């Protein structure tokens, strides 16, 4: 995995996906709107994980159980494989388009974004200005009104972890960043609604020599998933009343 991450910066050749998902060349969204639940939680899984059950699944179940009938969970349909330049580019475009079509189709819907490992890089780069991204530089940007509807962002084992940021949480060593650290301040606009969790000796977010990957998988049972879930739950406004069946059944036609 370390080698796959380093290829993102060491190979100067633009991936084929840079043209395929270029928002200027191909402006039509690659995502279709889904249900207009009050809250849409989008997960971006880590490399090699199943889209049906992955590191972030327990977190989303806790959030859904806390707000029954109000939360729709969608796992980002990107490859999450070892070719992070190609797959990550699709992931960034797909996340931007998903939020865009949902914002247009569902006027009251609010968003939560959660990413693990490669998925954390995808989420962070989708939120950042294209010039500061490692993947998805051609895929466009979130409209300001869409960005304002993001209530919470939670990341784990982030290769772009920057230890000095105010939203960095965990047992990480101060001054030690991830394998591909993000430019300081790149996500300043989301700082008050973002938590980026990293444990010491996680070689992905701590650039350590512990390459057995053991620490990178400890988020599942070290309490940080529950902490992230609690952060999300308190940021979901209480609804005045349950949404009607008509409100939740189908998205409005954006066209």
UniProtKB/TrEMBL annotation:
Start and end residues of each stretch annotated as Disordered: 1-20
InterPro entries, A to Z: AB_hydrolase_fold, Cutinase/axe
Recorded superkingdom: Bacteria
SMART domains (alphabetical): Cutinase
Record bears the keyword Hydrolase: yes
Signal sequence extent: none
Keywords from the named record: Disulfide bond, Hydrolase, Serine esterase
A GO term, aspect molecular function: carboxylic ester hydrolase activity
Pfam families the UniProt entry points to: Cutinase (PF01083)
Record's keyword annotation contains Repeat: no
Similarity remark: Belongs to the cutinase family.
PANTHER family: CUTINASE 4, CUTINASE RV1984C-RELATED-RELATED
Official protein name in the record: Cutinase family protein
């Amino acid at each position: 995995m370390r080698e796959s991450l380093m290829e993102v910066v060491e190979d100067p050749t633009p991936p084929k996906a840079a043209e395929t998902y270029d928002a200027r060349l191909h402006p039509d969204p690659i995502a279709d709107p889904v249900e207009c639940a009050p809250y849409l939680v989008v997960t971006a899984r880590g490399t090699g994980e199943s889209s049906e059950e992955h590191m972030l699944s327990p977190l989303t179940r806790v959030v859904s159980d806390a707000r029954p009938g109000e939360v729709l969970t969608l796992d980002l349909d990107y490859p999450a494989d070892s070719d992070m330049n190609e797959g990550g580019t699709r992931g960034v475009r797909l996340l931007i388009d998903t939020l865009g079509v949902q914002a247009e189709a569902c006027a009251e819907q609010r968003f939560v974004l959660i990413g693990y490992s490669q998925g954390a890089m995808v989420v962070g780069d989708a939120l950042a200005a294209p010039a500061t991204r490692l993947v998805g530089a051609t895929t466009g940007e979130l409209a300001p009104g869409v960005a304002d509807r993001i209530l919470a962002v939670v990341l784990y084992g982030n290769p772009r972890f920057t230890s000095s940021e105010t939203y960095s949480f965990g047992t990480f060593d101060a001054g030690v960043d991830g394998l591909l650290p993000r430019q300081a301040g790149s996500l300043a606009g989301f700082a008050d609604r973002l938590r980026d969790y990293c444990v010491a000796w996680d070689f992905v977010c701590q650039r350590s020599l512990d390459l057995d990957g053991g620490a990178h998988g400890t988020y599942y049972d070290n309490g940080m998933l529950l902490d992230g879930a609690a952060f999300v739950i308190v940021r979901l406004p209480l609804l005045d009343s349950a949404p009607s069946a008509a409100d939740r059944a189908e998205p409005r036609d954006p066209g």
